[in-house]
Amino acid sequence: MSAGSVALVVPSDFGVADLYELGIPAAVFGTPQPDLADPWYELWLCGTGNRSRDTMPGFTLNSAHGLEDIVSADTVIVSWVPDEVFEDNAPVPPELVSALRRAHDNGARIVSACVGAYALAEAGLLDGKKATAHWMHTALLAERYPEIQVDASQLYIDEGDVLTSAGMSAGLDLCLHLVRRDLGAHVANQLARRMIVPGHRPGHLGQYVDLSVPASDEQGLTPVLDWARARLDEPLTIEVLARQAAMSPRTFYRKLHATTGTTPLQWLLNERITRAQALLESTDLSVEKIAALSGIGTANNLRHHFLKQVGKSPSDYRQAFPRHQA
Q1: Is the peptide bond before 39 cis (omega within 30 degrees of 0)?
Q2: Each residue of 198-255: pLDDT tens digit?
Q3: DSSP labels for 260-273?
Q4: Positions of E strands within the chain
Q5: DSSP, residue by residue, 81-143
Q6: pLDDT: is 62 or 132 the higher one?
Q7: What's the alpha-carbon Rg for the chain, to the nearest Å?
Q8: Are 100 and 73 in contact (CB under 8 A)?
Q9: Domain 212-326 maps to which CATH number in 1.20.200.10, 3.90.850.10, 3.40.630.30, 1.10.10.60?
Q10: What tens digit of pLDDT does each residue of 156-204 get?
Q11: Which GO-annotated molecular functions does the record name (predicted)?
């Protein structure tokens, strides 16, 4: 599938706190990766004010694109609304709302991170849909827009042509999810490896995780999780993983949940689906063989779980992406 153009809305008054959430999509979509996919995404920085202006001490934005250009983009990303929107219940800038509506009507995929969900909500793009934002702002979002099913517990939510994510690092999870949707698991995993982050964190994981785990890697879970990833085709259970980690099953369950936000069985299923995606992209193996190699068992089981998590059948997924060498 084609990567397409990504319009990143850059506010006229962005500050130091905004640099992180703006920098994530800029790094993911604005850095060519010709060995992974060529052409890569085309990133447009779309300013909400003058094309060239001082934005904060030491920074000047020079943009060839304005807010009006998001209407012709394939993907639009908004991670900002003025502070007064969620602090003083002020209206979302009408020019941003109008541009988002026109972009959506034109077929663009609309994406928000953090408080950008307020702009999508004001544009009516989240009506009747599930959505999330940074957990500090979800209560007000739900109160202000009762027609939206706000879920503060998720990292990101994919509703097809409209996607929302929590703030800060959850934006990276959503960006990698978009790459995975557009270009496949192989490309997304390789990109994540270059960025030194996990290849895939499902959106249903909790926004905030108890990180009170031992600092020593030998005492942590990395060795046993790597051990499990190398044996996904084997019958792994909580008891097997706990024994490998030299813990009781109850302790292992608690530590894994605190570290990853998910249960051992769900973690295994996520890893097995990721393995199946990579095999579908990189080999001509049958669905039955891929089901066995990924540890899911039968082709019917793979189809069931794949459709539930990925949104399409294994066969349709294989046809949607170009062949990559493993």
Answers
A1: yes
A2: 666 655 544 444 433 333 343 478 899 999 999 999 999 999 999 999 999 999 999 8
A3: HSS-HHHHHHHHHH
A4: 5-10, 42-47, 52-56, 59-62, 65-66, 75-78, 109-113, 130-131, 149-150, 156-158, 162-165
A5: --HHHHHS-PPPPHHHHHHHHHHHHTT-EEEEETTHHHHHHHTTTTTTSEE---TTTHHHHHH
A6: 132
A7: 21
A8: no
A9: 1.10.10.60
A10: 999 999 999 998 888 999 999 999 999 988 899 889 889 887 666 655 5
A11: DNA-binding transcription factor activity; sequence-specific DNA binding
Token pair in block for residue 86: 């969620």
The CATH code that applies to domain 5-194 is 3.40.50.880
Nearest CA to 14 among 54, 52, 73? 54
Query: Tokens representing 57?
Result: 């001490």
User: 84: closest CA among 42, 126, 59, 118?
Assistant: 118
Whether 108 contacts 75, CB under 8 Å: yes
Residue whose entry in the numeric block shows the structure tokens 């663009």: 108
Residues of the chain with CATH 1.10.10.60: 212-326
Under the banding of pLDDT at 50, 70 and 90, the label for residue 264 is very high
